Amino acid sequence: MNKIGLIPKLIIGIIVGILVGKYGGVLPVRILATFNGLFGNFLGFVIPLIIIGFVAPGIGELEAGAGKLLGMTAGIAYSSTVMAGLAAFFVNSALFPLFLTPGSIVLDDPANPEHALLPALFNVDMPPLMGVMTALLLAFTLGLGMAAIRSGALQRGFKEFQQIIEKLIKGIIIPLLPFHIAGIFANMTHAGQVAEILSVFLKVFLIIIALHLSVLIIQYVAAGLIGG
């Protein structure tokens, strides 16, 4: 099972989720919904830690005087993000109305589709230690500080923290992700929404992949022209 890649596992999760939602009854779907709630809350707790664990030591390993290069890199990254967002907006405005028309997806409760989903058996709140932007700013501050003072102790500590986060991602998040996908599709199938949503999701997914490839090609060409 470990030899199967992540994408095939996700596809298996979708298939299993649809089968459970269609033939498994209420209790298995609610158990999966409970897992989804716990896993989603755990992801929300872990995301700020992932940002700090990867960004701070990465910046801290920069050579002295690399702050200008970091600033330029951050500026280019944010500019690229804005341009990609604008491209997504224009593609959305031009293509999505062709197949996302009012009434194309009929739900039992169009005001709030979540009302058609089965609730979890219980929920456990896992509030994150900080918000995403706070974690990003803290990671930049600590990383630049480590690069400036060349603190070996801090750098070793953050490298070990990064290793902890890597093991968390590889050992918990990635293996449990297919079950999370299975739970989503099981609940949608039980609510009778999966056929309509999948038909639209496939079209949206293909457009997203094409847009990603276009943006990557533009970025690689621009990097090649600038780097000579």
Provide structural commentary:
- With 228 residues, the protein is mostly helical.
- The chain has one domain.
- Helix content is 78%, strand content 0%.
- It contains 6 helices and no strands.
- Helix 2 (26-60) packs antiparallel against helix 5 (152-190) and helix 3 packs antiparallel against helix 6.
- The longest helix has 39 residues, at 152-190.
- It is globular.
- The relative contact order is 0.19.
- The model has no long low-confidence stretch (mean pLDDT 82).
Describe the protein's topology.
Blueprint: H1 6-23, H2 26-60, H3 67-99, H4 132-149, H5 152-190, H6 194-227
Helix pairs in contact: 1-5, 2-4, 2-5, 3-6
Structure, briefly:
The chain is mainly alpha-helical and 228 residues long. It is built from 6 helices and no strands. Helix 2 (26-60) packs antiparallel against helix 5 and helix 3 runs antiparallel to helix 6 (194-227).
- Inertia-based shape: globular
Order of helices and strands: HHHHHH
Q: Which spans have pLDDT < 50 for at least 5 consecutive residues? A: none
Average pLDDT score: 82
Cα separation of the termini: 44 Å
Count of the separate structural domains: 1
By secondary-structure content and strand pairing, the structural class works out as mainly alpha
Tell me the number of strands: 0
Report the β-strand fraction as a percent range.
under 5%
Radius of gyration: 22 Å
Number of helices: 6
Which percent range fits the helix content?
over 70%
Q: How would a crystallographer describe the biggest sheet?
A: none
